[in-house]
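User: what does the whole thing look like in 3D?
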Amino acid sequence: DQQVKQNSPSLSVQEGRISILNCDYTNSMFDYFLWYKKYPAEGPTFLISISSIKDKNEDGRFTVFLNKSAKHLSLHIVPSQPGDSAVYFCAASDFSGNTPLVFGKGTRLSVIA
Amino acid sequence: DSGVTQTPKHLITATGQRVTLRCSPRSGDLSVYWYQQSLDQGLQFLIQYYNGEERAKGNILERFSAQQFPDLHSELNLSSLELGDSALYFCASSREFTSGRDTQYFGPGTRLTVL
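Assistant: Here's the predicted 3D structure for the full assembly of 228 residues, as structure tokens:
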């Protein structure tokens, strides 16, 4: 049973437009969420995180929104750049921080120039 | 460059064989994590070590084992290999032991192909 779901395997966006990547979770114990970005032949790299006490966290062009009631989070990239083309993984953990991260299957973002 | 190194980058072997994957964490990091990424799957957590001790265990098969040495490098041993074990194996490291909160830094992965 997948506890973290990224239902869109891929997404194409034009350069300069907004990219919105979505993630749903089922475990109500999750209260800390992260996004990782992965380029081919490299390991994932941490991008941005959000705690459940917030509903938004912003870092430059990247903003993560959290809707706890819907158990949904999204990553917005504005404006999208060709260098953003990568696979994006959503991950979650519970409040204790002691259980391992649970990752989604990832969404492949292609930013077209 | 995350500072986490993994060797080898690629490994091709036959069913029934045994292999060892190696990981060196970032300088100063005490936790090491192992993940498996099969085709079209997310990262599946296998096991975590903190300062030489097993800290958390995921869906790791009994045929797989790991250890973390005094110099903090870690090895993942995969035995009696099956075709389904073909995957990317990632190692990650972090400063502390709270895997859910601590930023994890990933190595480039080892691609294992079992023929």
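In plain terms: The radius of gyration of chain B is 13 Å. The mean pLDDT of chain B is 93.
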